[in-house]
Specification:
Blueprint: E1 2-7, E2 12-19, E3 23-31, H1 33-36, H2 44-66, E4 75-79, H3 85-102, E5 106-109, H4 111-122, E6 130-135, E7 140-147, E8 150-156, H5 162-172, H6 179-187, H7 211-223, H8 229-258, E9 262-266, H9 273-286, E10 289-291, H10 295-298, H11 303-314
Parallel strand pairs: 1-4, 4-5, 6-9, 9-10
Antiparallel strand pairs: 1-2, 2-3, 6-7, 7-8
Helix pairs in contact: 2-3, 4-11, 5-6, 5-7, 6-8, 8-9
């Protein structure tokens, strides 16, 4: 089945064509980073307007790269939350229009579910049960996956997400937007124990909390030596190390009860080199199979939405034109 995916949850306008849920025929992403950089973060109204401007050209390019026409599309999948409501509405409206005009099945895909399915584009032979850690600028979730579409949320952030902490500290350090990748690059030159920071919510719970760590890092920045390049690199390295350490520790704690065949690391923060390294080491010690998508599939993209949509469509899941622009992760 050839599925067209549309993703407009935040500041990437994306469209992709995926065959049978595992083969990427095209994956086009138009970033808005340069537009929002001067504001230090995403401006929702500007993001929605830019999606209106870019979505049709992005769709055309995705079809061209796949050497297909709209007539070849057999299903349409679109992100319908979570995200910026105005931005999501643009993508959902376009998907509805295409489904109606082409008489093709329409399916809404939760954005977090899409991040999980980026792993299936990376390693098609994933077996269940699987344990997914989804880490992004807005979300930090531990999810057990017993089968396609069958999820159990084991833990979530109680306040700030890990990626938000990275972005806010990066902005305070003057690293620009998006801050996470810049923090990662700077931290590679630093000592991960050079600036003492508390482990965030290092208890037996599978939930997360990063607001206190963000405050501690801001205080360290205020009282430290921010003009010293070596000290700044140490702060970046130390922040990433404590975040990655607690993410990995809680994932391994959840794995003891889930007993997964596969551990999946997903979301934009899955591109972080410290997190990838610590998770690889922890899974290697315990003989867990670990799947981490390449960076282009960790950040927001439409190929993951098309892949998730294929598996929903193959279970005969359909949405009608009342599909809303918001959903929570389906639990079954």
């Amino acid at each position: 089945m050839i599925v067209l995916g549309i993703e407009t949850s935040c500041d990437e306008t994306a469209a992709a064509v995926v065959e049978d849920g595992r083969t990427i025929r095209s994956n086009v992403i138009a970033s808005q980073a340069s537009l929002h950089r001067r504001f230090g973060g995403v401006v929702p109204e500007l993001a929605a307007r830019k999606h209106v401007e870019r979505l049709l050209p992005v769709l055309d390019e995705a079809l061209d790269q796949a050497s297909l026409t709209l007539a070849d599309i057999e299903g349409i999948a679109v992100t319908h939350g979570p995200g910026l409501v105005g931005a999501l509405t643009v993508g959902v409206a376009a998907a509805k229009g295409l489904a109606l005009s082409l008489d093709r099945p329409l399916v809404g895909v939760n954005h977090l579910e899409g991040h999980i399915y980026a792993s299936f584009l990376t390693e098609p032979d994933i077996t269940f049960p699987a344990l997914a850690l989804i880490v992004s600028g807005a979300h930090t979730d531990l999810v057990a996956m017993r089968d396609h579409g069958a999820y159990q949320v084991l833990g979530r952030t109680r306040d700030d997400a890990a990626g938000e902490a990275f972005d806010k500290i990066a902005r305070a350090m003057g690293l620009g937007y998006p801050g996470g990748p810049e923090l990662d690059r700077l931290g590679r030159r630093g000592d991960p124990r050079g600036v003492p920071l508390p482990l965030p919510m290092a208890d037996d719970s599978l939930d997360f909390s990063f607001s206190g760590l963000k405050t501690a890092a801001l205080l360290a920045l205020r009282k430290g030596r921010p003009a010293d390049p070596s000290w700044r690199a140490d702060l970046a390295a130390s922040l990433q190390h404590v975040v990655a350490a607690v993410l990995v520790d809680k994932t391994m704690a959840a794995a003891r009860s889930v007993r997964p065949n596969t551990v999946l690391l997903a979301g934009g923060v899955a591109a972080n080199s410290t997190l990838r390294s610590l998770m690889q080491a922890a899974c290697g010690q315990r003989a867990y199979r670990l799947v981490i998508p390449p960076p282009v599939l960790c950040t927001d993209n439409a190929a993951m939405i098309a892949a998730a949509g294929y598996f929903r469509l193959s279970r005969r899941h359909r949405d009608d034109l009342s599909l809303s622009a918001y959903s929570d992760l389906p639990v079954a």
